[in-house]
Q: What sequence folds into this?
């Protein structure tokens, strides 16, 4: 199970404001582009957002559904990735002094993602999480400036989004 933490130097209310904006999903989730709410009121339970995954000229339409929401602290999502199946993604926010400790937990639920899940796949997810938490931190701390430092490339984001200081687990 891929779990990663990061201390974001903003209060949980400001981090939650970014998570609660379905239009900003593609700004912090690595590999996605052009997110938009399609059903319900994001991030309420059963609400959904649509987005694209771009791999060179290939464009795949996907959807993420809110499965559990505890406003201000917990957002659990089910990401649908077509033939790869689905994954559970949980984001938990915890006050840490005047800042916010964010935990990101992801694992496959159904489909090929579960069958292919192994230590190597887990390492790739950890790189992705490092980039995602880096983007989320930039959106929150810098007001969104340079959140997508790489123009949207998941490979570049994995390199650019991370760090190795005390904010990363």
A:
């Amino acid at each position: 199970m891929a779990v990663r933490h990061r201390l974001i130097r903003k209060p949980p209310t400001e981090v939650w404001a970014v998570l609660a904006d379905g239009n900003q999903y593609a700004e912090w989730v690595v590999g996605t582009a052009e997110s938009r709410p399609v059903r319900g009121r994001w991030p309420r339970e059963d609400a959904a957002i649509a987005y694209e995954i771009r791999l060179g000229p290939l464009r795949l339409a996907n959807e993420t559904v809110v499965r559990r929401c505890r406003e201000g602290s917990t957002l659990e999502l089910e990401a649908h990735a077509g033939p790869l199946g689905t994954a559970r993604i949980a984001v938990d926010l915890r006050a840490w002094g005047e800042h916010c400790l964010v935990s990101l937990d992801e694992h496959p639920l159904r489909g090929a993602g579960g069958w292919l899940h192994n230590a190597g796949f887990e390492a790739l997810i950890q790189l992705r999480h490092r980039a995602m938490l880096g983007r989320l931190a930039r959106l929150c701390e810098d007001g969104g400036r340079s959140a997508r430092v790489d123009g949207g490339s998941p490979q570049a984001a994995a390199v650019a989004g991370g760090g190795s200081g005390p904010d990363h687990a």
Notes: The chain has a mean pLDDT of 82. The longest strand covers residues 58-70. The chain is about 30% helix and 40% strand. The CA atoms of residues 16 and 72 lie 5 Å apart.
